[in-house]
Structures are given as structure tokens and as C-alpha cells.
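[RESIDUES AND BACKBONE]
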Amino acid sequence: MRKREYRKASVRGMSFLVMAAVLAGCGQNAPTQTDSTGSSSLSTEESTGSTSSNLNDSNESESLFLAAEEFSDRDFDSSYEESSKTITLNGTSAVCDSEDVEISGTTITIKDAGTYILTGTLENGMIIVDAGDSDKVQLVLDGVSINNEDSAAIYVREADKVFLTLPTGTTSTLSNGGSYVAVDENHIDAAVFAKSDLTLQGSGSLTITAEAGHAVVCKDSLVVTGGTYVITAEEHGLDGKDNVSIAGGSFHITSGKDGIHAENKDDASLGYLYIQDGSFVIEAEGDAMSAESDAQIDGGEFQLTSGGGVAAAEPKSANVDWNPRFQFSPNTERENGTNNTNNTENTDSTEADEEAETGSSTKGIKAEGSLLLNGGSFVLDSADDALHSMNVSIYGGEFSIQTGDDGIHADEILKIHDGSITISQSYEGLEGAVVEIYGGDMDVTASDDGMNAADASTTTTLDTAIRISGGTIVVAASGDGLDSNGDLEISGGEIYISTAEGGPDTAVDYDGQGTITGGTLVAVGSSAMLQSLDSEVQGVICTTIEGAEAGTEVTLIDNNGNEVVTWTPTYSYHAVLISSPQLEENGSYTLKVGETETEIVLEGLSYSNGVSQMWAGGGRPEGAGFGRGEAAEKSRPSEEGAGAEGVQPPEGKVPSDESRPSMPPEGKVPSDESRPLMPSEGNMPPEGKVPPNESSPSEEGVQ
């Protein structure tokens, strides 16, 4: 097979340049073109426009790899002549009448190109392929059973390429007994060990058991085009040095390390994963799928469990020390000059260090370069991040995720163009230095932030930001709903946020500029640390209320009696933030929270009420409540009374409550005994002279 000649830096750079083009105001992405060497490149069309307004990124899927480059015609051709050379295995001996086959006890060596049909059983033996470096060898496993107690069942010492063919209706078994004794200078550590390109093909079944080491190791390019595989391995299930490329097949893999692993320690441009289709059930103690370079999945069905799943994850906590004496009005600053934020940082560099020390990584799908998902059905249960890469792009697929850490994490840029994503349990739902949402349906439940643009842990000069231009997003978070350590830009989509009370978090949190120029936003939560959004094109309402229990519907009605928005939040709340293109300049509206109605009149395009910059003695102005901390009640969007013009989240898009963490009992907010007393009302310090908050939330451990 012709070797792929591309640099990982080029492929990784491709994804980065695509995303950087968006950041720089460049135009729509074009699909990847592949040059004659097989390296990936991407053409872009330049256009004008600012970053904040030009988010019309193309929804056409990208490609890091093309199927035509990954699979040859012969990879799919599993036919063979019945008159081919036959090797009959007879337990402790074998028979073959070809001079190209050498038999010594239970060691059978194939020395030339051609097709060889294997039948029977071999006990404590080995099939060795030792042909010329330009020879192609086809091994037809016609219902064979081969076990080797001390080494590989099949060992490809030398050839150009070897095909393991599984004929229709056959079942074969390959196994290792738990140890590896050297037979030459090569370090054999798998039940199937190949030094050349290796293709698994056909429609039969193959069971591979490695009591020690890996099930399949290929020190070149590992390709699978068909077959049914039941794999149990003490370490990796499928391991390819240059790449693992799968066009189809059914896989049930149980592994002590990674289920599918691609890594080339000698050439950082290799070690990639490409999946065109297939059915995968993987239970891995390490990562379910891991690529040291890039990974692309175009389709297939995936049920992946890593590290024992979320049940085995170490509990994570933001460890925030919150002082409820401080409360902030929309778009105001703290005494240190920074906007209201948790100042969370990307902690993945620490995680990477820990993984390097322990050798353990328990992510669902991980790629050190770029991860591109164009389609497929995914059920992910991981102790660590479910999806993790330097850059993540999602153009389609259905995702059901529960994880002990982030649902989807990108060290640099996370882009979601389409797809259905349900994150029922996570620490943080969606995270990247830059998070860009162009479309899709997202239902996110998080014990910390629902969506987080964290400070980049790399040397890149990315401007941290969350940008949303489309899609339907429902967030239930115990931390912030949307948390950007840079800018927050909303230009489209429907966004519904419910955040738990009882801490320093709020529905919308940003350090830089917060703007909305399109789309619908309904966000409710604590009135502490409350921020609003700026807009020059549509109205924004930001107000505190007396308080509403979990499951209390919030509705905004215009002066003609039409519902602008209506939604039933998951958690109790004391603040409401609403923006919609239907909110007109100087318009009059009625805000209904349960049975309580409040008249709202926009001053221009904004309304802000009931939030004081700070108050004396730990008190608060009337209506400016902060978290009661009651546990969330299950709720669904109300369908009653929704007018034709009203906006509601789609049916079924309400976050699940099964895994939501309970909040502290009423009144159990953190103690303020160690805080300096605030001046009494009427004796406030001059503006900018607010006493320092010595124990404000620490950045350490907060994400």
C-alpha cells in the first residue's frame, strides 16, 4: 500500500487555519482537497467582514482524510481461488504440499507471495509470513483455531502487504497464552503481529484473545474493510503504527488499555485514525479510541465505555469560595477592574502531565491533533472527557454523552456545525479556548459550566471567545451557563439556560465584551454576579425577581398579547435575562413568572432592574435575591398557552435531571465570617474604592 506522505503539522495546521480564518474574518470553508502525495489541504475563499458578524461558516463537511486514499480496491476484494495453496492444521502438526511453505513442528513459515488457505486447529503454534519486501500474501482463515502460549498466533516478519481474509459463514480463533518469548530481534507483543501493511477483510468472524499484550499490532498501516471481530486484550485491542483505517465491520473490543490505538513514536506525522463506517462496542480501561495524530469519523455506530465510565470517575469540584456580600449589576466590573467571571483556566496541561506520569488516559475518543466528526451514532460513557482533541469539528451525528469530566473538549477551537448532542452528565459540557456554534441541537447538563471558553493552555495566540450563530442550545448547569474568559458573541440560534443557585455563578458570564445581534436567549439563575448583554439591533431584558421555584414557567408577552418567549427552567431562579429579535425599541412587555406579572418598558433596546452594585452588611436590595440552594426539580418546557409567535425549545430538548448534583439546603451558603465588614448603607466608599475581596474565588482547580 502506498504510504501516506503528509505531515501532522500540516493536517493539524489545516484545521487550525480553517478556524483561524473564521477568527480573522475570512470566508466560508471549502471541502478538503487532497494532492498527489496524499497530504491534506484546504482551500478557502476570502471575504470581508468582522469576526463578530461573519459567522456564516459553511456547513459542508470537511475532510482530513479521503476514503479513496485510505483503501485500495484489493482491500475490499476478499475473493480467492479454491485451488490456492492449502495448509491443513492438525493440532500439533501441519501439512502443505507447496514448496513455498516450510513446516517445523507447529511453526509454519510462508516464504513467497500468493494465496494460502488455512484450515484446522494448531495448538501452541505460529504462522509466520517471511516473504519478499514486495510480496503480497493472502491468508484465508477458513474456520481455523490457532493458539500460541508463548508468542503470536500469526507473525508477519516481512512482506509488502498481508491480507487476513474471513470467508462468509466461517468463524476463526487466534489467541495468545499469556507470555511472549523472543523468536528473533523483533519485540512481538500481540496475538497478531505484523511488520508490514495488514488488511483484515471479508464477512466471516474472528475472535482474538491476548491474555498478554495486544490483540492486533501492525507496525505499518492497519486497514479493516469488513468482518465481525470479538477482541479481548490485556493491553490495546487494535494498534496501528502509521494508521488505523476502518471502512466497515462489527467490533466488540474489551481491552486493558485503549480499544483502538494509533501511534508512531518515530514520525509525528503518522499515527492517525480514520473510520468510514462500522459498528463498535468498546469497553476500554484506557481510551476507547486514541490517535496520536488526527482522527476523522464519517459514520458508524459507536457504544464506547472508557475507564469504567462515569461511575468510576473521581468527583470534580470547582472549589469556589463565594462571598455573597458582593453582587454585580449588568456589565459592571469588580473592584480589581475585571468583569464578573470565575476566571477559570484550561487545566488540560495538568491532566496531560498526570497522564504522562501514570500512563492512564480514560477518554472516549481522543486525538492529539484534530478530531473531525462528520456523522455517526455515538453513546459515550467515559471517566474522563468524552471527546478530546486540540481542535474539534462536528458536522453531524447523534451523540449521547455522560462523562466524569468534559463532554467535548478542545485545547484550542471547538466548532459545532450540526448534529444532535445530549450531554446528560459532565463536569463541563462544551469547552475550548474558542467555542463556535453554527448549528445543531445541544442539550447540556453540567455540574460546573455548561459551555466554557477557557484560557488556552498552548502557545497559540487565540482570542478566547464563545460565538453562537445558530442551533438550539439547552443548558442546565450548576456553574455558569455560558462562561467566556474573553468575549461572548451571539448572532443567532435559540439558547435556553438554567443555572443552579447557591454559588458565585450565573447564567451568562464573560470577561470581555458580551453582545447579541440575533437569535433568542432565555437565561435564568442566580442574581449574584449577574451580567447582561449589549445590543444595537434587538431588545435585551435583564432583571431580578423575588424568586421562583424550580419548574416555574417564565413567559414574556408583548403589548398585543403575543408570547415572545416561554420556557420552564430546571432550577429555581432569582434573575431573568431575555433577548429576542421581537423585542422592539421602546417596546412594552409583560414578564410572567408563575403567577407574578411585571410590566417591562424598554429604554431604547435595554431594560435593567433590581440589581445593585453592592449592598451593606450582607443585605441586598429588594428583589435582588441570591441562591436558595434547593435541589432541582424535574421539569419540561410548558406547552400550554404557547402562542404561534412564541418561542419554545423543541420537544425533548429539556435537560435530563437524573444526574444533576443536589444543591446545599436552604440557607447553607458559604460562611462570611472571615470577610471584612462592609460599610453601612449610606457610607459606601467612593467608586473604584471597594475593599478587596481577599478570599475571592481561587483560579486553582476552577475550570
User: Anything to note?
Assistant: The CA atoms of residues 4 and 38 lie 6 Å apart. DSSP finds four helices and 50 strands in the chain. Residues 1-56, 319-350, 611-645, 652-703 have pLDDT under 50 and may be disordered. The longest strand covers residues 465-477.
